[in-house]
Known about the structure:
The complex is a heterodimer. Chain A has a single domain (about 1-255), classed as Rossmann fold, CATH 3.40.50. In chain A, about 35% of the residues lie in helices and about 25% in strands. Chain A has seven helices and ten strands. Chain A has helices spanning about 40-50, 75-80, 95-110, 110-120, 140-150, 170-180, 225-255, and strands spanning about 1-15, 15-25, 30-35, 55-65, 65-70, 80-85, 155-160, 195-200, 210-215, 220-225. In chain A, the strands form two sheets. Chain A has a six-stranded mixed sheet, with helices on both faces. In chain A, strands 2-1-4-5 form a four-stranded antiparallel sheet. In chain A, strand 9 (about 210-215) and strand 10 form a beta hairpin. Chain B has two domains: about 5-310, no CATH class; about 315-365, no CATH class. In chain B, about 20% of the residues lie in helices and about 45% in strands. Chain B contains eight helices and 20 strands. Chain B has helices at about 5-10, 15-20, 55-60, 65, 80-85, 315-320, 325-340, 350-365, and strands spanning about 30-35, 40-45, 50-55, 90-95, 100-110, 115-125, 130-140, 145-155, 160-170, 175-185, 190-195, 200-205, 205-210, 215-225, 230-240, 245-255, 255-265, 270-280, 285-295, 300-310. A ten-stranded mixed sheet of chain B has the order 2-1-5-7-9-11-14-16-18-20. In chain B, a hairpin with a 2-residue loop joins strand 1 and strand 2 (about 40-45).
Amino acid sequence: MGILRVVNLGVEVGERKILKNVNLYIKSGETFVLFGPNGSGKSTLLNAIIGNPTYRVVSGRIMFKKIDVTNLPTNERTKLGIGIAFQNPPKISGVKLIDVLRFCARIGGYTEEKILELAEKMNMVNHLYREINVGFSGGEVKRSELLQLMLMNPDLILLDEPDSGVDLENVALIGEAINELLERDKNAESREKSGIIITHQGHILDYVDADYAAILYNGRIACIGEPEDILNQIRNHGYEGCMARCLRNMNENSG
Amino acid sequence: MSEEYERELGVDTEKLKEVGIELDKSKRSGTFLLEDQETKTFASFFEGVEVMSIRDAMKKYDWVKNYFWKLLDRNQDEYTREADTEDVNGYFIRALPGAKVEIPVEACLYLKKAEKQKVHNIVVAEENSELNIISGCTSHPGVTGMHIGLSEFFVKKDAKLSFTMIHSWEPTIEVRPRTAIHIDEGGSFISNYILLNPVKLVQTYPTAYLEKDARVVFNSVIVALEGSTIDSGSRAVLRGENSSAEIVSRAISKGGKVIARGHIIGDAPEVKGHLECKGLMLSENGLIHAIPELEAKYPNVELSHEAAIGKIAEEEIFYLMSRGLSKDEATSAIVRGFMEIEIKGLPDPLKEAIDRTIEMAEKDLL
């Protein structure tokens, strides 16, 4: 069953058109990795799915659980079960991590006890009473974002560069958390959580085994395949080389 | 306090609670209540602290008069001259040498019907003592008038004094506090000033004079609603070596006018001072004018300031909405966070009083 369907999506930021005609279909239980060079629109896609007002949908629509969410405010999408971990979340002075975790737990239906248990797990107990993201290291920001997601317990999880600016020690912990969020530890048939992972360098794929991957290039999604294959091709041939090869393959297959 | 006692005093206790006045023995170590010029009640529940009216204190101790007008100049302006009168009243609060009074003393100045309430307070924290005071100033609904409040604080050697003042007036009241603080060697003074309700005008600029190794912290949280003009500042004169000052202010304008001043004077070597002034504009009209001033008279001083005024960042609202909050809830959480000043060393009952005041004022801001 499909959980997310993005149809002919066009998105603008300011006067700039970032995405044109993006189509995407994700089934329940599937994890999808999205590669792409800087500025290709990966973050734009996730922001459009969660409803960031800075990212204006100018064409197409976003269907989540068969509901058209294209014009819903962000918090309504959250309530339907979309959750996002941001690459660079804002610092908010005076608002503590614990406050935000309580908001998240409201969505997930969790108690204060669960907040503490998960904070412990994500090694964030000492940060609970600190202002959110203020003075957090790269790894702490990512752990905090994943902790928030765990408490929201979303069905579709959007992860924007969960491994950027993170040291190796933290990548393992973050990988483990993502596997749990996406139920990668369960067998494929019983998984219900779906995800889109954006990764620039692919470090996280050493820990997270995704179902398939694609490249976002020139505002469009192309080159769908095995995550490892695509990553190897990008590493060996660059984005352009990789695109050229898969376009060639597509032509051969169709010819 | 019993209901009977409440009736006897004839005060609106809900109104008092708004400004942190509990009239509850178990929560305070002393209490003082002034209605217009008349002392309604006073008591000390702790042997290390004295609480009485300034009139009684003058009778009890010959030396109190030496503190009167010691820091303030009676000719400073028309308001100090006006308060220099026979019928002036106010509180006298004193922590005895070495006394540690953690539970706060409360002092309430209530403007009931007077056209002008004229108050002169003296607070003394004797050597090595610790004292916490909550002062709530409020007025009877519908009353029109002026409050002139003179306060002189004496923090003796190695003493610690915290003074939390919550104001809740009426849109028809003009408020002119005149405050000076002397902090002796090694002493510390923390001031918290909270003003969140409508008022016609507040004009205040307390000044602290610091000796060697002394420390002062001024925190203020100010909200100016439509029709309010609030000109509020804090000044520290660092005249002893190694003394330090920290001035933190948060100003919100929702249609009203705030002038947020701060002034640190480095008048001795090896002193440190930091001034932080943040403003949040919540509506199209209104005004916030931040005036931070630093003055150094010696080369080896360390003085700095930061000032920033803006509106709520859309990015922050969106972030909290992605955690399930509606736009209004997100805005409220951010405004609340903006008003939150981390106050170290403040007893819990005072933190609670501040939190409660902020919570009650929130509805006016959204």
